[in-house]
TrEMBL record:
It comes from Micromonospora rosaria. The lineage of its organism: Bacteria, Bacillati, Actinomycetota, Actinomycetes, Micromonosporales. Belongs to the multicopper oxidase family. This is Copper oxidase. Residues 298-317 are annotated as: Disordered. Keywords: Metal-binding, Oxidoreductase.
Length: 433
């Protein structure tokens, strides 16, 4: 806590070297370390500030994905941090408990900077839900899993060649090595009956379909923007880049089971599904449970009280996804694509009329998925979210609740979170006034 009563964090972005594969150092970037960054954590009502210092060889930015804050503090393309400069955003945490994350967001270099390793989690706690009997011992039964794919060349360097297209890539570079929390081939020792995992798909392009090798059921307890009203039983969870989910998994003594990514149902045609990783299967983490497990309290039947379904006003705003465009236009730093009323709810209709998979993320808001192709959203899309998969030839309807911060000068972004698409211009800007 600083002299102004703010909780102060520090992120030093620097170059480093990480041995993902034994004996083969890889040049990486990180925050306060060589790859990825620390998990930041604050409570609803806290006033926070961050000193972000850029020791990287080029300018970057740090965006607080999913955080409810004024546009000027959002860390998007309009908040560049020059080499050796320090950026000092500050805000008040004003949202329910959620698993958020931070990552660079400069126009046209987001893919490179995230891929090299600048990213981390930001966990928000809320006194209103603190008492819920959910697993909460960080690193023991409340475990973050940042899932990313990488392509590592024989000399140990990261392959970034197809990062922004070329060759047979439609969604960007897909790697064959899976890292979880920056570790290749990870395992985790389970000590409690229930474990809560905070999953983040921190990949540039790869879409994961998370489940267990033995198909065991798990409970979805939170979506991107916070806890659900009640746990939802699932045995597969589709997670596109930028999406988070919290799940609770039951283990038995002596269990030996792998969390996997199964071929994701991308709903693309045969060729495009293959090119976008739709046939791929990966082991994510191996779990080994102790011979005796510490008992966990039973999962509560209800979690967080859900606010009434937001009622959009005004005409729907329709965004059609094209060849790395929205409504036929690529991102322009000086062009506004939408003006939104501060604190209003709008219906946004996201239309993917292409053969290529996309997803959609909006800053300065959270949203409910109203329907997907006219049908009620599946269980994993029922919570409050900020990022959603948009399959080829499909339309996703959102009720977007905008924040009460008004600023006519600094815009918020909306974009495809497949980072090669975003960098190619599949992004737009809006202000709330
Ligand atoms: Cu995760 Cu606009 O970003
Ligand atoms: Cu964001
Ligand atoms: Cu896209």
């Amino acid at each position: 806590t600083d002299s102004d009563g703010r909780k102060r964090f520090r992120l030093d972005l620097r170059e480093g070297s990480t041995e993902f594969l034994p004996g083969l150092p890889t040049a990486t970037w990180g925050a306060n370390g060589t790859y990825l960054g620390p998990t930041l954590r604050a409570r609803r009502g806290d006033r926070v500030a961050v000193d972000v210092t850029n020791h990287l060889p080029e300018r970057t930015s740090v965006h607080w994905h999913g955080m409810h804050l004024p546009a000027e503090m959002d860390g998007g393309p309009h908040n560049p941090i020059d080499r050796n400069a320090t950026w000092q955003p500050y805000w008040t945490i004003a949202q329910p408990a959620a698993t958020l994350w931070y990552h660079p967001h400069l126009h046209q270099t987001t893919a490179q900077h995230v891929y090299r390793g600048v990213a981390g989690l930001f966990i928000v706690d809320d006194p209103a839900t603190d008492a819920l009997p959910l697993p909460k011992q960080y690193g023991v039964d409340d475990v973050p899993l940042v899932i990313q794919d990488k392509k590592i060349k024989d000399d140990g360097t990261l392959d970034t060649s197809k990062m922004n297209f070329g060759g047979l890539t439609i969604t960007g570079l897909l790697g064959d090595k899976i890292l979880v929390n920056g570790t290749y081939d990870p395992h985790f020792e389970v000590k409690t009956e229930l474990v809560r995992f905070r999953l983040l798909n921190g990949s540039n392009a790869r879409i994961f379909h998370v489940g267990f090798a033995d198909d065991r059921e798990f409970q979805l307890v939170a979506a991107d923007s916070g806890l659900l009203g009640a746990p939802q039983p699932l045995n597969r969870l589709l997670l596109s880049p930028g999406e988070r989910a919290e799940i609770v998994v039951r283990f038995a003594p002596g269990d030996d089971v792998v969390m996997k990514s199964f071929p994701p149902p991308l709903k693309a045609n045969f060729a495009y599904a293959r090119l976008a990783g739709g046939d791929d299967e990966h082991d994510l983490v191996k779990f080994v449970a102790a011979g005796t497990l510490r008992p966990s309290p039973a999962l509560p039947a209800t979690l967080a009280p859900q606010p009434p379904a937001p009622q959009p006003t005004g005409d729907p705003f329709r965004l059609t996804m094209g060849d790395f465009t929205f409504n036929g236009r690529t991102m322009e730093m000086q062009r506004l694509d939408r003006v939104v009323g501060t604190g209003t709810v709008e219906r946004w209709e996201i239309v993917n009329s292409q053969l290529i998979p996309h997803n959609f993320h909006v800053h300065g808001s959270s949203f409910h998925v109203v329907d997907v192709d006219g049908e009620a959203p599946p269980a994993h899309l029922r919570g409050v979210k900020d990022t959603v998969y948009v399959a080829p030839n499909s339309t996703v309807n959102l009720a977007v609740s905008f924040l009460p911060y008004s600023d006519a000068r600094y815009p918020y972004m909306f974009h495809c979170h497949l980072l090669a698409h975003e960098d190619s211009g599949m992004m737009g800007q809006f202000v709330t006034v």
